[in-house]
Hints:
Layout: E1 7-9, E2 36-41, H1 49-60, H2 67-71, E3 80-85, H3 90-99, E4 104-108, H4 109-117, E5 129-145, E6 160-162, H5 170-180, E7 189-191, H6 198-203, E8 209-214, H7 222-226, E9 230-232, H8 237-246, E10 251-255, E11 266-278, H9 283-293, H10 299-305, H11 327-336
Parallel strand pairs: 2-3, 2-4, 6-7
Antiparallel strand pairs: 1-3, 4-11, 5-8, 5-9, 5-11, 10-11
Amino acid sequence: MQQRFVALLAIAGFAGVALGGLLLGAGAAAPPMERIPFQIATGSTAGAFFPVGEAIAGLISHPSGVDRCESAPVCGPAGLIISARTSQGAVDNVTEVNDGDAESGLAQGDVVAAAVKGMAPFRTKASHLRVLASLYNEDVHLVVAAKSKIKTVRDLRGKRVSLGDEGAGADITLREVLSAFGVSEKSLKLVRPPTGGDVALMQAGKLDAFLIVAGAPAPGLSGLFASGGARLIPIDGTGRERLVKMVPSLAPAAIATGTYAGQGSVQTVATRALWIVRDSVPPDLVYGVAKALYNPLNRAALAASDSSAGEIRLSDATLNLPAPLHPGAARFYKIAQH
């Protein structure tokens, strides 16, 4: 596996798991707590997935001696050490999890759907993907330069349009949108920018449009709109109707007035941010992770950590799934939602 991830422990203040120090009734020391490493592949530190993964890791990890884990059932199984690690994004995360190079990862629903079907850029069907949880909505933002004459998706013809960061998955969504609106890729001047370079390129006058998929407000976009350098254009009408029929993991949505400076309500589509896991992860472990994630005592901390994480709700945990639930997660939801 290429060493392109930066592993980051999401629990501050411990460098390892200490041996248990409680005494048994007979006076013998308890056996050491087993360490259970578990990774969440997220995205870049500037993106939306990383802070969510980091927040989840910090809340659910259960190292020895953490008072909040011992005083209430808010953490995962004893010994669980979750680390959120950076990645290139959803496409890479799906590949890593399916190949067994990461236990879990975050990915947008339409990317998971493409992987399960073996559609481009995936060469074969991703048969080992399972869903641990459907987390929150991610809106499709179609951003254009403020001075451009682009008003609809069809106006992208002949324009400089970004494919997004390689491995992030925005190019999959862009191609889905273009297809639904009858716009040929060959009619565009496609650009693959440096990592995270869409905003900078547009500010420099070198890009006409780009697409990102993220919970609104999306990281990095607020400043661009506040400066008057960009506009949102709608994904609506008959093109949107075709799009949601073509890609069931996309659904009609709207970005509300005031989400970004100077932008009114804009019609679009949204997908779900999914926490995916490999089918080989033990069901009891996944059950314990899901149980901790949706513990009501963790809601306030999730909401405080990130606006998107604040949208994680048990009632939406199985919403619009493009891949099967992991058996451990399915068992928890069957109990918790009935």
